[in-house]
Design goal:
Distance between the termini: 13 Å
Shape: globular
Mean pLDDT: 89
Helix content: 25-40%
Order of helices and strands: EEEEHEEEHEHEEEEHHHHHEHHEHE
Largest sheet: 7 strands, mixed
Number of domains: 2
CATH class of the largest domain: Alpha Beta
Length: 357
């Protein structure tokens, strides 16, 4: 489930700790100086600016050279956006690939724990305070019930927490749920999926629920509407959809070259697909403890997300609509990269939950 790379050489917690949350676009690092200390010195580095993960870590340590007075980090926990199946790791949405053992040796660590980034994020969920999340419909969570987590960013991360009653704790799920096959809920979605299938073959949830997915949706909708495709980045699509005149632009605005209406429709389609996938995950896990949405895309929608098709599609499960209506959904919206908290939590998990290689 988790991968502990290089066993601890001396008993007890090792400090200071380096913590990392490594996605396909940004690597976030932080520092924890001692037991019970706050997570501090958070830095966000663009992955594309560094040849390797080790180079990014070294850059972080140089940026915070004042930490040298505490000594080099004794151990590190890194959440990374890729399956963690052994010593060799190759990122799904970024060129970095490395041996975890070699990384531990290069950084001079006594212990290195590498885990999937959404596994790390899941571990942080029980520690989130009310200011770090916003509820999107539903009722109150069932105490002790399973929890689901998904989040569109550079890719689509999926995880959750399953209650182990005998141990009295939550166990994180490590999987690759972002690559499940995407289903259509209406004729427009079917047409979009059919177009993407001709291009990619398999159409996973990540093909539409990610930054690149926004571009895929925008291009498919423009083609369906018979409009010339204007190349836009995910950020530009979101900006156009969020402009005050986007919803009033209509087909004429799109035909005039602004594509505001297509961008708005793209965002609605995105939110509808996200609601469908989130509802599927809630049913699969029996997530009556709630569903959390992370990732970098949805928080940028602000309050507009609450009026989007997300919640109706989340609940649109036929005979199980009432079951889903009661499940709360929370949008994680915190200035602190929450997965860093989960990485710190992972270092305190019982050894029986870790696989040492």
């Amino acid at each position: 489930m988790l991968q502990a790379l290089a066993p601890t050489r001396r008993p007890g917690p090792l400090f200071p700790r380096l913590l990392g949350d490594v996605g396909g676009t940004h690597a976030r690092f932080a520092w924890q100086s001692h037991e019970g200390a706050a997570i501090e010195h958070v830095e966000v580095l663009p992955c594309a600016q560094y040849p390797s993960l080790a180079d990014a870590v070294q850059a972080y340590l140089r940026l915070h050279s004042q930490l040298n007075s505490q000594g080099r980090p004794a151990c590190a926990a890194l959440g990374i956006a890729t399956p963690v199946l052994g010593d060799w790791l190759a990122m799904t949405n970024h060129p970095w690939a490395f041996s975890a053992r070699a990384l531990r040796a290069e950084l001079g660590l006594e212990r290195l724990l590498v885990l999937n980034d959404f596994t790390a994020l899941a571990l942080a969920l029980p520690e989130l305070d009310e200011q770090a999340k916003r509820q999107i419909g539903g009722g109150s969570p069932v105490s002790g019930a399973n929890i689901a987590l998904l989040g569109p960013g550079t890719g689509l991360g999926v995880s959750g927490l399953v209650r182990d009653a005998s141990a009295g704790l939550f166990v994180p799920i490590t999987g690759e749920g972002g690559h499940v096959t995407l289903a259509a809920g209406n004729a427009l979605e079917f047409a979009v999926i059919e177009m993407l299938q001709a291009r990619y073959g398999h159409v996973s949830a990540e093909r539409v629920l990610s930054g690149a997915g926004l571009v895929n949706l925008y291009g498919a909708l423009a083609q369906i509407r018979g409009l010339a495709l204007e190349p836009l980045t995910p950020a530009q699509i979101m900006q156009r959809a969020m402009e005050p005149d986007a919803s009033a632009g209509g087909a004429g605005a799109a035909a005039g070259g602004h594509c505001d209406a297509v961008a708005l429709e793209t965002l609605d389609l995105f939110c509808g697909f996200l609601g469908q996938v989130a509802g599927d995950l809630a049913l699969t896990l029996g997530a009556r403890g709630g569903v959390y949405i992370g990732g970098g895309i949805v928080p940028r929608m602000g309050r507009r997300f609450e009026q989007s098709p997300f919640r109706p599609r989340f609940e649109a499960k036929g005979r199980y609509s009432a079951y889903l209506q009661s499940i709360p959904v929370w949008l994680i919206d915190s200035p602190m990269p929450v997965a860093l908290l989960g990485a710190a939590q992972a270092l305190s998990l019982p050894e029986s939950m870790l696989t040492t290689v």
